[in-house]
Design goal:
By secondary structure, the chain is of the alpha/beta class. Helix content is 47%, strand content 20%.
Length: 330
């Protein structure tokens, strides 16, 4: 066996042990694994660690949760597959990847749908979120909340983006999310899908010119080092759905389900507050950083350029849901 082969075997063995499904360990002991793709220090990472701590405390040490961040268990799409097959218990996943499993989830990212994050919380914590949770049940997933992935902005290495025309000809990385792709194609950009874990290198090597993400993700993954122009387009808001494998959920006792649901809600509130605090702090830091250029945009032209996107989504098979969502957001 070569050194490379041995290393691969060790890595696969390590990841396999991390992703072990929910196990009863005797005397009511439960072991869970939560996977996510965020970098250390990101609000999602901090809230996941807090969730594990709270579960251990609230259960008197009976429930142990291991957190595997930074895409240790694969990218978001891979973790969704693991959830549905029961080899991973929980993932605080991305809206874009999750929309491949539940296409209507992407409608939450319609351009300029929400006035602010608080307006988005009101919608996803109400009837719209309940309907999405029911639809997730149909694809083998239990949705326990909608964490914050933030209001998204545009960065690139070429020039400030102040109007839609500035995006023409730029190669922009988007997640594998049809809504984001529709938005940037409507704005004239050439879109390309690259795994988030590979994005820094792709920007550094010029595979793409820019990308779009909330400030927390831009900062925690240091994307500003390879994209000096940060344009506050605020083109969409996204959630991080908190998803549990239906197989793992079914293995839990009713009391453990209750503890997990409550801990997920509390951690979600914490994560949202961290995201809001981080946005304000990071914006001030970026404005004071001479190595980057931050500009605001007049959103009117961007709204006009992307207005047809939402209308096209109403024409999809789940158009009734899209209409209810737009009404709720309004």
């Amino acid at each position: 066996m070569t050194i490379q082969t041995r290393r691969r075997a060790v890595l696969l063995g390590t990841l396999g042990s991390l992703a072990m499904p929910a196990l009863a360990l005797g005397q009511g002991q439960v072991r869970l694994t939560l996977g996510h793709g965020a970098a250390p220090g990101n609000p999602r990472s901090l809230a996941a660690e807090r969730l594990a701590t709270r579960l251990r405390e609230q259960s008197g040490g009976r429930i142990e949760m291991r957190v595997a961040g930074s895409a240790q268990l694969g990218d978001d799409a891979a973790m969704l597959t693991s959830l549905r097959t029961g080899t991973l218990d929980i993932s605080v996943n991305s809206q874009g990847a999750s929309s491949a499993v539940l296409p209507e989830l992407a409608a939450l990212g319609m351009p300029f749908l929400f006035a602010n994050a608080q307006a988005a919380y009101k919608v996803v914590d109400g009837a719209v979120g309940e309907e999405l949770a029911k639809r997730f049940e149909g694809v083998g997933l239990v949705a326990l909340g909608w964490w914050e992935n933030g209001t998204r902005h545009t960065t690139n290495s070429k020039r400030p983006v102040t109007r839609p025309e500035d995006l023409r000809g730029l190669k922009i990385r988007t997640p594998p999310d049809p809504m984001t792709i529709d938005i940037f194609q409507a704005l004239g950009a050439a879109t390309q899908q690259i795994n988030f874990a590979e994005l820094y290198v792709a920007l550094q090597q010029g595979v793409v010119d820019g990308q779009e993400n909330p400030l927390t993700n831009i900062s925690s993954s240091k994307l500003h080092e390879v994209n000096r122009f940060i344009s506050l387009t605020g083109h969409k808001w996204e959630c991080n759905p908190f998803l549990v494998s239906r197989i793992s959920w079914g293995r839990l006792r009713a009391e453990d389900q209750r503890l997990l649901r409550e801990a997920a809600r509390e951690a979600g509130e914490y994560q949202r507050s961290l995201s809001q605090e981080a946005d304000a702090k990071l914006l001030a830091e970026y404005r004071a950083n001479p190595a980057v250029t931050v500009n605001t945009v007049e959103q009117g032209p961007f709204r006009a350029a992307t207005a047809a996107v939402a209308d096209r989504w109403e024409a999809r098979p789940f158009g009734d849901f899209v209409r209810r969502l737009r009404q709720a957001a309004a």
